[in-house]
Amino acid sequence: MSSTLKNLSDFSHLEVERAEGLKFAIVVSQWNAEITGALLQGAYDCLLAHGANQEDITTIQVPGSYELISGSDLVLRDASLDAVITLGCVIQGETRHFDFICQGVASGVAQVGIKYNKPVIFGVLTTDNLQQAQERAGGKHGNKGEEAAVTAIQMAHIHRNF
User: The pTM is what?
Assistant: First the structure.
């Protein structure tokens, strides 16, 4: 969780494993593309910085955050994947649509991970406004995409060891 006391891109407290030999898929929402593009770049660069090979990273774009569920399900038909990173951004509006989408996406992403017994990482921003999203997509609170990539690396290693 990002706050004034925590930067999403500060991993100094973790011993992050190497990503060499691991295969990842990044499923990213096209909605709020300014934000999700920054999240994607953060995740991609982070995987490479930790030793992943470009050819071991598959990226697919889906229309919105709700479609992250079926996008993850589709890519996990490739049994060789070690982890999936979902990236999206849902910004609070004037209706309860925000609540339904956020709850549905969180639950759906978790269910896909359970279905395939693979790490599916929830890298979806759920913010009150655009400024909060920008602050968490490479702004003063770091980049949720980087955090999701580190989580994917760590969880892929845990999954391989059990």
Answer: 0.93
